Structures are given as structure tokens and as C-alpha cells.
């Protein structure tokens, strides 16, 4: 396993969206043995769990707005990043009403467990972010429908 990697980089703003990320200045595959690596990044003492992406011939890490605010960083700024491979199992807390709906599907929990961490996280986030009860119910139904089709 690779040790912690510390480097400086400019936080790059996406040209069309309210998004920002960091280009990793080393060969991730050489250091970690694969291109897509779950990592923990730390900037200004704030940690964030993510996965390194390989796009357009370079290695990138996206930085969500909430994380940028916590770390006190803005696009265009030169920052010091420390990252290391995240070896902890990633789990998602399922909202209670979504869990109840999943349990109504034959083999529903097993199907849920087979979903990628990111898919589970996005499903849970979509339910939790609903502002209206009707929206929440609709989103849960959509998730259940997608799980019964797979």
C-alpha cells in the first residue's frame, strides 16, 4: 500500500458548472496499482472520502461545494492536499422509509447490497433531499422500480 501523498495544486473551477476539482500531479496507477482508487483527501485539516477519476488522460478529484466551504478553499487557489488510500468499507445509511420499501421487494436487501456505494449514496441522498413528502414517496417508488427491473 502507498503511503500518504502530499502535493500542491490549484483548485480548478469547472467552466460551465458550480463544480471544482484537483488534478493529481502523479501517476496514480503507478503509486496505487490501479486508476480508480478510493481515497481520503485532507485540505486545511478537513477530510473527505472520494474516488480518484481518470478522465482526459489525467487523474482528478472532485471537491463538493460543502467540502470546499468546510476547508475554506476557493477555485483558483493554490492548496496543499494530502491523500491516502481509503481502505475502510464504504456504507450508506438507508433512510428508514426507503429501507422499509426495499424490504417489500423479494431479495430487496441483497439487491441493495449489490449496488455500488455511489449508487446507494445517490439513492439515499435523493430521498433525504426531498422537500415535500410526496416527492420523497415518488423518489422511493422510482428507486424500488429500478431495483425490481435489475
Describe the structure.
There is one protein chain. By secondary structure, the chain is α+β, with helices and mostly antiparallel strands. It folds into two domains: 5-85, AF2212/PG0164-like (Elongation Factor Tu (Ef-tu), domain 3, Beta Barrel); 96-149, no CATH class. The protein contains six helices and eight strands; from the N terminus they run E-E-E-H-E-E-E-E-H-E-H-H-H-H. The strands form two sheets. Strands 1-8-4-5 form a four-stranded antiparallel β-sheet. Strands 2-3-7-6 form a four-stranded antiparallel β-sheet, with no helix packed on it. Strand 2 (12-13) and strand 3 (20-24) form a beta hairpin. Helix 3 runs parallel beside helix 6 and helix 5 packs antiparallel against helix 6 (133-149). 17% of the residues are buried. The mean pLDDT is 92.
Can you give keywords for this protein?
single chain; 150 residues; alpha+beta; Elongation Factor Tu (Ef-tu), domain 3; 4-stranded antiparallel beta sheet; 27% strand
